[in-house]
From TrEMBL:
HTH luxR-type domain: residues covered: 145-210
Domain spans labelled Response regulatory: 2-119
Native species: Acinetobacter baylyi
Protein name in UniProt: DNA-binding NarL/FixJ family response regulator
InterPro entries, per database record: CheY-like_superfamily, EvgA-like, NreC/VraR/RcsB-like_REC, Sig_transdc_resp-reg_C-effctor, Sig_transdc_resp-reg_receiver, Tscrpt_reg_LuxR_C
């Protein structure tokens, strides 16, 4: 069994690895810290049996990475592991294709339980959720946007996330080690697929998949 953990916090990533090893000592565990690293591993042909994915990652915006990876690798089970414990966030994650949701405050025993359930094709949710759980209406409103994002190639998705971060075409070209003309072609294709006219509209569109932070 090969499990890929994707989280940008080294301390939590280490703790999660230890929890998985305790529950599933036979598992082979790999780790990455960003969406680009995740795609590099998947594109190398080393597809894992399961991905454990944080929602707040470099190179992603809210649910965007979950939506896109799910579309590119539809048979790959994904468990979201997140500090967000709001019911609405859990509902949206499941609606966007996650097979399980583990809050970072969960007891370590829940991790092995969740993995076993998901690998058996079942959806696993935290045991403290209400029995009458219904889907967040925002998830259905996001369906069209999710489908548009799913139509992007992995490289177009990377470019879109960099556009959302405010990088210029020249900067994106440097980061991805390609020509500026290639990036311009990607941006044109992204605008067409998202149904937008410019960068501002593209950023506003992708922001619909963001997660609202709690107000303290």
């Amino acid at each position: 069994m090969n499990i890929l953990i994707v989280d940008d916090h080294p301390l939590f990533r280490h703790a999660l690895i230890q929890a998985v090893r305790y529950s599933l000592p036979q598992a082979q565990i790999h780790e990455t810290a960003a969406v680009n690293e995740l795609y590099q591993r998947l594109e190398s042909g080393a597809e894992p049996d399961l991905v454990m994915l944080d929602l707040n990652l470099p190179g992603a915006s809210g649910f965007s990475a979950l939506v896109h990876v799910r579309a590119q690798y539809p048979s790959l089970p994904i468990i979201v592991v997140s500090a967000h414990e709001e019911v609405s966030v859990i509902q949206r994650a499941i609606a966007h294709g996650a097979m399980g949701y583990i809050p970072k405050s969960a007891h370590p025993s829940h991790i092995g339980e969740a993995i076993r359930h998901v690998l058996e094709g079942e959806i696993w949710l935290p045991p403290n959720l209400p029995n009458n759980l219904s889907f967040d209406p925002r998830a259905s409103d996001e369906t069209e946007l999710a489908e548009r994002i799913q139509s992007l190639t992995p490289q177009q998705f990377r470019v879109l996330m960099m556009v959302a971060e405010g990088l210029l075409n020249k900067q994106i070209a440097y980061e991805l080690d390609v020509s500026e003309a290639t990036i311009k072609a990607h941006v044109t294709a992204i605008f067409r697929k998202l149904g937008v006219q410019n960068r501002t509209q593209a950023v506003l569109a992708i922001s619909a998949l963001n997660i609202e932070e709690k107000k303290l």
